[in-house]
UniProtKB/TrEMBL annotation:
Pfam family membership, one: Amidohydro_1
Source superkingdom: Bacteria
Record keywords: Hydrolase, Metal-binding, Pyrimidine biosynthesis, Zinc
Protein name (record): Dihydroorotase
Subunit structure comment from the entry: Homodimer.
Positions annotated to bind Zn(2+) 1: H21, H23, K107, D255
Reported cofactor(s): Zn(2+)
Pathway: Pyrimidine metabolism; UMP biosynthesis via de novo pathway; (S)-dihydroorotate from bicarbonate: step 3/3
């Protein structure tokens, strides 16, 4: 870290990070968005909620090839593939996919919880045979932690999931490695902190920056709508404390989830925030604001691989404390996507991979 005479950091060289939760989409959208992730991150856990969802080893291999084909020439990036769990997925398919190195993890979407989750799991007990196999293999289970019960207030769905589903799941499979994805509440932070070492959590840039008021500031803001939805200020502050605490159970996962502008600005707008164009810069600003810049590297580049049992990256990236205007829009085929922080001035600028290495 290079500092000015007043002690403020001006340049950061950190181990190259990974993104432990991203939606890269497919087709024309994939070719536009994948390089936004690949220019910053060495690896990413790629979400399987395509249409149709990635439920087989063959589908994951084919999707991985499409991702690799969409990468800009010379950009080194490893997509880590995930299986989409359904009520009927065969334990043998999961075992074969993990054993052959195609599946790194499997994703649990409660049915109808979010975008393309219609084929998700209707009752956790239906996938107990799969979880048994995953526990034995040491294969991580990635969880979208929200109940879908319409009697439960949308802002309480994560906390109720923890109470009703996650507690039971962890008790039934004490050796299963579980990541509670994109946590949004004080309750999730406390639960993860109190649980054993097999439970980790990812934290997105947007949940560190916005609270639920941001969705209604001066009018409805569809580009700030995601699931789990942003919560009250006290929850955002709890997430900032967790992310910057140095606790290895918390790590970087952007949940970057692009949707075409027409899908967001609609009478029934999709959930998802496209933050890949500003991800590292946003995390750097949060860590600086919290007086924890020296802990950014561990959150972004060490806690995740250690949880997954993967090697740390050996390359490095450079961030500079130079203001940069975030892009206002991104053109995709015949439409556009509006990224997180569109047009805002970011305090940090991502300068790319460090030539001199780490
Ligand atoms: O906001 C979200 N968008 N949350 C999810 O869980 C899915 C994602 C998407 O795929 O658009
Ligand atoms: Zn997601």
């Amino acid at each position: 870290m290079i500092k000015t005479a007043t002690g403020a950091a001006t340049r950061l060289v950190i181990r190259q990070p990974d993104d432990w939760h991203v939606h890269l989409r497919d087709g024309a959208m994939l070719s536009t968005v994948v390089n936004e992730t690949a220019r910053q991150f060495a690896r990413a856990i790629v979400m399987p909620n395509l249409i149709p969802p990635v439920t087989t080893v063959a589908a994951a291999e084919a999707y991985r090839s499409r991702i690799q084909a969409a990468l800009a020439p010379g950009l080194a990036f490893t997509p880590l593939m995930t299986a989409y769990l359904t009520d009927t997925i065969e334990p043998g398919e999961i075992e074969r996919g993990f054993g052959s190195g195609v599946f790194t993890a499997a994703k649990l979407y409660p049915a109808h919880a979010t975008t393309n989750a219609a084929q998700g799991v209707t009752d956790i007990e239906r996938i107990y045979p799969v979880l048994e196999v995953m526990q034995r293999l040491g294969m991580p289970l990635l969880v979208h932690g929200e109940v879908v019960d319409h009697h439960v207030d949308v802002f309480d769905r994560e906390a109720v999931f923890i109470e009703r589903v996650l507690t039971k799941l962890l008790a039934a499979f004490p050796a299963l490695r579980v990541v509670l994805e994109h946590i949004t509440t004080e309750e999730a932070v406390a639960f993860v902190e109190a649980a054993g070492p097999n439970l980790g959590a990812t934290i997105t840039p947007h949940h560190l920056v916005i609270n639920r008021n941001a969705m209604f500031e001066g009018g409805i803001r569809p580009h700030l709508y995601c699931l789990p939805v942003a919560k009250r200020e006290r929850h955002r502050l709890a997430l900032r404390r967790a992310a910057t605490s140095g606790n290895p159970k918390f790590f970087l996962g952007t949940d970057s989830a692009p949707h075409a502008v027409g899908e967001k600005e609609s009478d029934c707008g999709c959930a998802g925030i496209f933050n890949a164009p500003v991800a590292l810069e946003t995390y750097a600003a949060v860590f600086e604001e919290e007086g924890a810049l020296e802990r950014l590297e561990a959150f972004a580049a060490e806690h995740g691989p250690r949880f997954y049992g993967l090697p740390l990256n050996t390359g490095a990236i450079v961030l500079e404390r130079t203001p940069r205007r975030a892009p206002s829009t991104m053109v995709v085929a015949n439409t556009r996507i509006i990224p997180f922080q569109a047009n805002a001035t970011l305090a940090w600028t991502f300068r790319g991979r460090s030539i001199g290495g780490y």
